[in-house]
């Protein structure tokens, strides 16, 4: 049988529905003069006639589903499937920048139709969008426009389409999506869209950080251990299911500023091919908002809370700025204020809210997720927050070792050895310097590095190391003098007088 050509399926439907609407209208007008039994009979026949004239079935796939307007997995998979299978046939396409930022990814534009053939059956996909509620003039694209795909097929293929065909579309679409997807860096910081007056939980940019484990200056053994741990995690879906644990792992990265904590997160994301969710706790109003953010996080992601020691006033024990404990009086005043504001813990993220986020019942949403906390002051953290099992792996990133320096020298100068290396090695033992400071001294003046540039950079570094060593020795001497018991000091002074 000849099926309706895809380009006219929508038009036919429009024509047919207006004809049916006309018939219905006449029936409604006439029903006042027609006996009830005859009216029912006629209605049944109208339905049958419509079915005969229009033997096609539609399934629509809206982009957003549910009360919380989460992007539908089906829509996203169909989008990827159609982008791969329809671009040779569709007449109107839209282009977006691809994974490597230099290529364009084509996909079907709105109000376009394409044909697909599966198991001997022809089906039609069309894309559409409902008009935005606010039709007024705006300089910005309409955000409340709702996009959807519609699948049309003959009713005799219903069983095959509902079963094998849709499973095929989902499987192929998801595989293409994983292969082609651009990784993203999400943040909850600018979650209010001023021109739309809407709250968005996460906003994102393309994640394009160049850090890898290869370029990370770290002890090779520590590096290997972390990479092994990440690989094992990634391959352990069955294991987590078998032991009844959510598929997630917590990392605590601690160490002084400039030792590579943030760089390591980027390297982890690149190694695992995961998205990054940078969770700014100070921008989260309360625990219920935290939960909302949490359920939005997709699998295959790293959730990062940087500087956990000062990013929230957890349980009233910490606050930004370094002062640790609050007096009980201060805590009482805050509690009273919160109660006056309409509820105890309603106005903030609490430690228990955060613990629930890490390993409570809500943490199981999504799966395949790494949670990373970073801090400069590990001792300031509440032990409950970082106990093993919650933060499974504690990694200290510290001052630059000779092994780490060699990685930086290779990255920045392209050298594996140099006559000045032994001097650098010795000074790295004597002075505490961060990889960030080492890297700063290894940036050559020109991009075409010559032997003299390498020497100049290494000499700069040696100078910086000498200075740091001197400063640290002076600080140690001052601290030692200040720590001497007063009696001993007085005795010395007395001895001096004699
Ligand atoms: N281990 C490292 N390997 C390679 N580069 C590093 C390393 N540590 C620091 N750097 C360099 O120093 C810069 C600062 O490092 P990074 O932001 O990762 O430090 P951090 O530990 O996160 O500091 P902070 O505690 O202040 O957030 C990076 O851009 C990177 O170039
Ligand atoms: Mg950092």
Number of helices: 16
Q: How many structural domains in the coordinates?
A: 3
Question: Which topology of the largest domain does CATH recognise?
Answer: Rossmann fold
Q: What top-tier CATH class of the largest domain fits best? A: Alpha Beta
Helix fraction, binned, reads 40-55%
What is the CA-based Rg, rounded? Answer: 32 Å
The global form is: elongated
- Do you know the CATH architecture of the largest domain? 3-Layer(aba) Sandwich
N-end to C-end Cα span:
120 Å
Estimated structural class: alpha/beta
| Low confidence ranges | 1-8, 135-143, 315-327, 337-345
Name given to the CATH homologous superfamily of the largest domain: P-loop containing nucleotide triphosphate hydrolases
Order of the strands making up the biggest sheet: 12-9-14-15-16-13-17
The description of the largest β-sheet is: 7 strands, mixed
Short description:
With 498 residues, the protein is an alpha/beta fold. 45% of the residues lie in helices and 17% in strands. The chain contains 16 helices and 17 strands.
How would you describe this structure to a colleague?
This protein has 16 helices and 17 strands. It is an alpha/beta fold and 498 residues long. The chain folds into three domains: 6-131 and 145-182, no CATH class; 192-396, Rossmann fold (3-Layer(aba) Sandwich), CATH 3.40.50.300; 402-480, no CATH class. Helix 3 (73-86) packs across helix 4 and helix 13 runs parallel beside helix 15 (451-483). Bound molecules: adenosine-5'-triphosphate and magnesium ion (MG). The site of adenosine-5'-triphosphate (ATP) has 15 residues, from helix 7 and helix 14. Residues 216-218, 257-263, 376, 397, 435-436, 439 line the site of adenosine-5'-triphosphate.
């Amino acid at each position: 049988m000849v099926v309706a050509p895809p380009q006219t399926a929508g038009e036919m439907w429009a024509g047919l529905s207006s004809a049916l609407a006309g018939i219905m209208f006449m029936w409604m007008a006439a029903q006042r003069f027609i006996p009830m039994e005859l009216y029912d009979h006629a209605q049944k026949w109208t339905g049958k006639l419509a079915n005969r004239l229009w033997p096609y079935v539609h399934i629509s796939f809206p982009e957003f589903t549910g009360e919380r307007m989460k992007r539908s997995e089906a829509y996203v998979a169909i989008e990827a499937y159609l982008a791969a299978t329809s671009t040779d046939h569709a007449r109107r396409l839209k282009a977006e920048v691809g994974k490597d930022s230099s290529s364009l990814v084509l996909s079907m534009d709105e109000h376009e139709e394409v044909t697909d053939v599966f198991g001997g059956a022809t089906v039609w996909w069309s894309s559409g969008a409902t008009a935005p509620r606010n039709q007024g003039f705006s300089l910005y694209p309409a955000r409340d426009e709702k996009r959807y795909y519609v699948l049309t097929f003959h009713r005799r293929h219903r069983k095959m389409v509902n079963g094998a065909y849709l499973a095929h579309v989902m499987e192929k679409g998801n595989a293409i999506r994983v292969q082609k997807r651009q990784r993203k860096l999400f943040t909850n910081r600018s979650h209010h869209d001023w021109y739309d007056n809407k709250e968005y939980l996460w906003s994102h940019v393309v994640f394009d950080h160049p850090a890898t484990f290869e370029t990370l200056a770290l002890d090779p053994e520590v590096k290997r251990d972390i990479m092994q741990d990440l690989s094992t995690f990634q391959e352990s879906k069955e294991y987590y299911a078998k032991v009844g644990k959510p598929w997630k792992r917590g990392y605590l990265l601690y160490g002084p500023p400039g030792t590579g904590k943030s760089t390591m997160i980027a390297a982890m994301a690149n190694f695992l091919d995961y998205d990054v969710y940078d969770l700014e706790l100070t921008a989260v109003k309360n625990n219920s908002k935290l939960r909302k953010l949490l359920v939005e996080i997709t699998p295959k992601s790293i959730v990062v809370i940087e500087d956990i020691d000062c990013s929230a006033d957890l349980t009233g024990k910490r606050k930004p700025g370094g002062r640790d404990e609050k007096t009980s009086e201060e805590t009482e005043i805050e509690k009273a204020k919160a109660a006056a504001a309409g509820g105890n813990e309603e106005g903030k993220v609490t430690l228990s809210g955060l613990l629930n986020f890490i390993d409570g019942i809500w943490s199981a949403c999504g799966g395949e997720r790494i949670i990373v906390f970073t801090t400069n002051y590990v001792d300031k953290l509440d032990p409950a927050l970082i106990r093993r099992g919650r933060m499974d792996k504690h990694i200290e990133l510290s001052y630059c070792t000779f092994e780490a320096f060699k990685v930086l020298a290779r990255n920045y100068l392209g050298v594996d050895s140099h006559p000045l290396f032994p001097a650098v090695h010795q000074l790295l033992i004597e002075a505490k310097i961060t990889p960030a400071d080492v890297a700063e001294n290894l940036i050559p003046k020109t991009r075409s590095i010559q032997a003299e540039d390498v020497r100049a950079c290494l000499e700069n570094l040696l100078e910086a190391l000498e200075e740091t060593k001197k400063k640290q020795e002076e600080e140690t001497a001052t601290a030692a003098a200040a720590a001497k018991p007063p009696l001993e000091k007085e005795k010395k002074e007395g001895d001096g007088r004699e």
